[in-house]
Amino acid sequence: MGAGKVLVLYNYSQHLVKGEPKDILAEHGVIACAHAVAAALREAGYTVEVVAFSTDIEATLAPYPPKEWIVFNLGEGLEGRLFEEARIAWALEAMGYRFTGSPGEAIALSTNKAKAKEALARAGVPTPPWKLLRDPAEVDGWRPDGPLIVKPVSEDASIGIGASSVVTDPHQLRERVAYILNRYRQAALAEKFISGREFNISLWGNEPEILPLAEVDFSAFANPLERIVSFAAKWEPDSFEYKNTPVICPAVVDPELKGRIEEVAKKAWHAIGCRGYARVDMRVDTEGNPYVVEVNCNPDLSPDAGFYRAARAAGYTYTEMVVRILRLAVEGV
Description:
Low-confidence stretches: none
Number of helices: 11
Helix content: 25-40%
Radius of gyration: 19 Å
Oligomer: single chain
Mean pLDDT: 94
CATH topology of the largest domain: D-amino Acid Aminotransferase, Chain A, domain 1
Shape: globular
Structural class: alpha+beta
């Protein structure tokens, strides 16, 4: 089915420079993914090396000439440092490797939620109103319209998102901003909380093809303000949130709304500059208006993760999905 030499590259961190101790769960989630990807590629006939790096990527890749190896890039950074994921892609490009997923520019843009929202707004992509807060004192005098969700400006994987992230008054907002500044050493992005449905839209290809839509089922949560995909919902299997946020794929959605969601997802892909594969997360309000809340350039490809869930719903096996993502890189998409 395939032939060639593939380096499955991922990061391994033993500790974090910021954040909560439990955040290491997200860092370590890539390990099992790397081995699953490698097994799929071997099944397809590729020669595969699985390489973890915990220091500098340049030294790690020295034994693997770029003319001989293509990189299946699962690198997500080191020790929770800001923008390491983008630096990995930039380094791969500078060293002459072909690699899967998005270029460094797109990863950097999507990682900085404030910059990403600016790019989305310029492209006419609907995204919730927001404000960047660098100090709790900046809350004074601000009168937002309704509840807010407060996030670290440059994290992904729901890091820094928990039960206290949705706030309804200035005191709660100041507390959450202070927490993010102190614990995550970065500004806080406060955006209007869109009460409604949440969809994950997986895309891949050149002029991107949209895989079957997925919807998070929040029916176990009576309080609309608790209907979020928190860190616990993603990474803590014993938590109520993890056990009660199943994902329905294909989502049950009427054709008109489906069309709007898909159109917005494609515009978001182009606004950020995604390549190869990506996921766009949206909230849809009670009037049926979709809002982009996140663009993930290199989403999790684990067998139990959302991207494969969508690919499987479209008829792909895990191996077929992995091989297609690799071939998109080989073809220079």
